[in-house]
């Protein structure tokens, strides 16, 4: 059974008269476990975030306005942990308090509050606490070459989701592999990444097979997006 370390947020869509939609990573990770009748626990901040979504030349620009912290004050022993945050509200140094498998989505740790810009991540002392680091293809450029080539160890693995090219790449200390995933052309791919992380962590915990877990979770994401785009 996993512990999910994540947060909810209210999307405040400025160009739609400040319409509010509640979701963000905790919502879709939790949704995966609920829909599959799987047990889980969740650690988050009781205050819901506020994220303003502006429109710039027909592209959404997300501005995170507030970042309440998630803090852990004791060692937690659990089956595995899924970390997917909105910003850096969970200090990854706290991963030394988490025992066993840790799956982390890097997406929001490269963002800045009140800014659409991204920042570079160099070597950080938490990196060897994390077993799997999920990175989208466009995010990989923000992990410095030093971090990827010098500090990667055999016990942690980068999984790069490249939906646009229908591949998932695995990088570890002494090997690299590309896995073909289902081809799709969906307009709406929002929350594919959180669904993938939830699904992959579940399959891997139960099989200890990286490639098989990627294929199963990619198929799950394909069906998730197919249903999402039909409805």
Structural account:
Helices cover 23% and strands 30% of the residues. By secondary structure, the protein is an alpha/beta fold. The protein has one domain: Ribokinase (UDP-N-acetylmuramoyl-L-alanine:D-glutamate ligase). Strands 4-1-7-8-9-10-11-12 form an 8-stranded mixed β-sheet, with helices on one face. The longest helix is centred in the last third of the chain and has 21 residues, at 210-230. It is globular, with a radius of gyration of 17 Å.
Class of secondary structure makeup: alpha/beta
Could you tell me how far the N terminus lies from the C terminus, measured between alpha carbons in angstroms? 31 Å
Query: What kind of oligomer do you see?
Result: single chain
- Strand arrangement within the widest β-sheet reads 4-1-7-8-9-10-11-12
Shape call: globular
What value does the average pLDDT take? 83
CATH class: Alpha Beta
């Amino acid at each position: 059974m996993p512990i999910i370390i994540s947060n909810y947020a209210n999307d405040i869509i400025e160009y739609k008269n400040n319409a509010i939609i509640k979701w963000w990573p905790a919502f879709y990770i939790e949704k995966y476990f609920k829909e599959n009748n799987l047990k889980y626990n969740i650690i988050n901040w009781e205050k819901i975030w506020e994220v303003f979504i502006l429109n710039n030349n027909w592209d959404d620009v997300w501005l995170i306005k507030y970042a309440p912290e998630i803090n852990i004050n004791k060692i937690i022993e659990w089956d595995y942990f899924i970390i997917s945050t909105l910003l850096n509200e969970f200090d990854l140094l706290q991963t030394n308090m988490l025992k066993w498998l840790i799956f982390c989505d890097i997406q929001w740790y490269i963002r800045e509050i009140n800014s659409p810009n991204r920042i570079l991540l160099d070597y950080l002392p938490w990196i060897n606490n994390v077993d799997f680091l999920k990175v989208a293809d466009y995010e990989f450029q923000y992990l410095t070459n030093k971090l990827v080539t010098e500090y990667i160890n055999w016990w942690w693995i980068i999984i790069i989701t490249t939906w646009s090219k229908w591949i998932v790449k695995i990088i570890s200390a002494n090997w690299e592999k590309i896995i073909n995933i289902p081809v799709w052309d969906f307009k709406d791919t929002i929350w594919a990444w959180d669904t993938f992380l939830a699904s992959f962590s579940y399959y891997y915990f139960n099989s200890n097979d990286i490639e098989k877990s990627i294929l199963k979770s990619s198929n799950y994401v394909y069906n998730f997006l197919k249903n999402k785009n039909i409805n």
